[in-house]
Write a sequence for this structure.
């Protein structure tokens, strides 16, 4: 037992990486990319524990059966959190099987939401409630909503609130159409813009373009999602095993989190989705979302996509046109505010990025 | 002492405490204590934390304590470390600190 040490494993070390992969498989877990850092615990040369971090998410934590009960997981977790902290990630999340709740509660994690297949934890007691309070503050200052109208939990409220969750990479006429259509069907429309920075356009710019593009609407409030919308991109499925259907599990959690912890707190009764005629996966997502949200008093409304000249408007088309230098075609698909930004100096490094991406797409 | 940024000190090893602090608006300090012996010793942990915050004249922080059975001295040391990491204060003095811990 005295020979136990914890060290960071660099993924370049194929031998150690494969050893970890095998170890995880024995624990019925997958080695799941992407990974920013992995830590492994050894007793001499024997691998006895692992843990990894990717962005804000801690995952792949496993301890060999005969070494459990010694708080090795606490030591591993400390190292991982320390790494996260050094990288500027102090708000950390864990997705795991619901049976593991006690373990993570003991490590200073608090449950955010759970379904039958997955539980989500964060390392702050008041993370979600602080986020909701911030939202309420913005909602009250940025619109004509009266405090009494907003948060009447059980009573009939005079004010109907709707929500839409968008990425807007960048904000296009398609998004504008969705928002225009949605905003006339409710008293107040909350536009949640994804805070996750996994898109070509950084989140501060994406949300600012949404603000500028919806200035003409008096009943909308533009808000960040923070880390509380479970996206396909970030959802880890390493613990689901053979039987898990990643997308369905992720969607159920996302829907429950939105319905139970967010919509119910903010009195949202309608959620608008853009139609996805070409994506089976998104169609399945929309159906699961509708099915789950109904349990939380939220009605889902699917809005048809806007087309120009028979072509459906999408942000990826816009990025593609810009990347190929076809700026006129791109400008036709976006509102004035977005076009102004694209033509400004501020946007030049993003345009370079789109050119690089278009070049890569050509070669694929 | 002015708290400028979030900071962390400590680990989740047994008998240690992990402390995470971050500045918040206003001058009130907020304590969030998680401990396996919260029922028995929560008030003692709170007393120790408030003393350190008082000694260093700290205002407007949220202190998250994830205790794993730490003694007063450990809590004090970890909290002092986190606070200095969170500020630009270079003035840590062992004699002064020692005089507090009586």
């Amino acid at each position: 037992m005295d020979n136990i040490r914890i060290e960071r494993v660099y993924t370049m070390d194929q031998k150690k990486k494969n050893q970890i992969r095998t170890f995880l498989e024995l624990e019925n877990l997958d080695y799941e990319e992407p990974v920013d850092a992995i830590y492994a615990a050894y007793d001499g040369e024997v691998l006895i524990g692992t843990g990894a971090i990717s962005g804000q998410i801690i995952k792949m934590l496993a301890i060999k059966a005969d070494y459990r009960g010694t708080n090795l997981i606490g030591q591993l977790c400390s190292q991982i959190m320390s790494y996260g902290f050094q990288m500027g990630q102090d708000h950390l999340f864990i997705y795991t099987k619901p049976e593991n709740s006690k373990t993570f509660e003991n490590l200073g994690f608090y449950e955010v939401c759970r379904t039958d297949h997955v539980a989500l934890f964060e390392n702050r007691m008041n993370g979600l409630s602080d986020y909701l309070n911030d939202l309420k503050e913005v909602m009250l200052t940025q619109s004509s909503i009266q405090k009494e109208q907003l948060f009447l939990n059980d009573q009939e409220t005079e004010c109907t609130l709707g929500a839409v969750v968008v990425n807007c990479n960048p904000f296009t006429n398609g998004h504008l159409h969705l928002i225009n259509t949605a905003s006339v069907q409710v008293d107040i429309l909350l536009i949640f813009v994804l805070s996750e920075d996994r898109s070509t356009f950084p989140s501060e710019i994406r949300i600012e373009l949404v603000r500028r593009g919806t200035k003409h609407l008096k009943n909308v409030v533009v808000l960040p999602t923070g880390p509380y919308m479970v996206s396909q991109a970030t959802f880890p499925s390493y613990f689901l095993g053979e039987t898990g259907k990643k997308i369905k599990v992720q969607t159920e959690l996302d829907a429950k989190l939105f319905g139970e912890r967010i919509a119910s707190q903010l009195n949202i009764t309608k959620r608008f989705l853009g139609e996805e005629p070409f994506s089976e996966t998104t169609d399945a997502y929309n159906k699961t979302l509708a099915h789950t949200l109904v349990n939380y008093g939220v009605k889902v409304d699917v809005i048809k996509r806007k087309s120009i000249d028979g072509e459906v408007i999408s942000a990826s088309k816009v990025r593609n046109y810009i990347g190929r230098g076809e700026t006129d075609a791109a400008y036709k698909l976006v509102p004035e505010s977005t076009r102004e930004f694209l033509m400004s100096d501020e946007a030049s490094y993003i345009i370079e990025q789109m050119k690089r991406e278009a070049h890569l797409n050509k070669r694929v | 002492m002015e708290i400028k940024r979030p900071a962390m000190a400590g680990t989740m090893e047994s008998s240690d405490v992990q402390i995470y602090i971050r500045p918040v608006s206003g001058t009130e300090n907020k304590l969030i204590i998680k401990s396996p012996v919260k029922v028995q010793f929560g008030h003692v942990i709170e007393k120790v934390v408030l003393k350190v915050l008082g000694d260093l004249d700290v205002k407007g922080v949220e202190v998250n304590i994830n205790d794993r059975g730490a003694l007063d001295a450990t809590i004090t040391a970890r909290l002092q470390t986190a606070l200095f990491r969170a500020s630009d204060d270079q003035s840590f003095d062992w004699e002064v600190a020692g005089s507090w811990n009586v």
